[in-house]
Amino acid sequence: MRIILLGPPGAGKGTQAKRLVDKYGIVQLSTGDMLREAMASGSALGQQVKQTYEAGRLVSDDIMIRMIEDRIMQPDCARGFILDGFPRTVAQAEALDAMMARHGLSLDAVIALKVDEKALIERIAGRFSCKVCGTGYHETFHRPKTDGKCDICGSSDFIRRKDDNATAVSERLNVYNAQTAPILPYYAKKGCLKQVDGMAPVADVAVAIDGVLSAVTQGVLHGS
Ligand code: ADP
Ligand code: AMP
Q: pTM here?
């Protein structure tokens, strides 16, 4: 299964992608995570993108398209993948179509999470994650079971993203509206866009996404 999860920053893409990884045994390709890993490693790429990332602007299409093409060719993607944070421009969407066609691959679904701006700001402001295993939390919506201790690995070391500050968030929302939202009509025209209400609690969003994917799977099984 090959899926794109679309939606503004803080919509819940990463939260849902992680669940789908467990459910379908496919990999999550988060371009934001890839950039954060590059910056943490101090690689040339990491240094090149740091300023753009921290300001909440988009890294160039060239870099991102190359990064995704390299990644989807790796053996662990053979069973399928969930794109989280890519594509983010119409040029990236067109390049993705072209690269998938070149490699004989097709998309099963493009799922867009709809969340209003006030909720996005609240979600991003409260977001933090475990520094050791990366598990994501929220101060209000998803606290660790024991305060200050990661549910998964027990670590008490938590971090917040450098671009989750008020200035960068405001820029990221502007960038989303100007450069990423136009992807929705691009996929709607192709007939593969499914909109899901992302304002609902995590479990309800999960049920809605599973509904979309089970319809897609049945369509695939019945050859439509
Ligand atoms: P994205 O990957 O789209 O930027 P995340 O999955 O990181 O978004 O979610 C942003 C924050 O909102 C996280 O702290 C997460 O725990 C929380 N969150 C995700 N989905 C929901 C939801 N449906 N309701 C409330 N909070 C949510
Ligand atoms: P995310 O983790 O998806 O919220 O992405 C965090 C930041 O990484 C964005 O604000 C951009 O600076 C950069 N980024 C991630 N994915 C892309 C992409 N597909 N195109 C351009 N920049 C990206």
A: 0.95
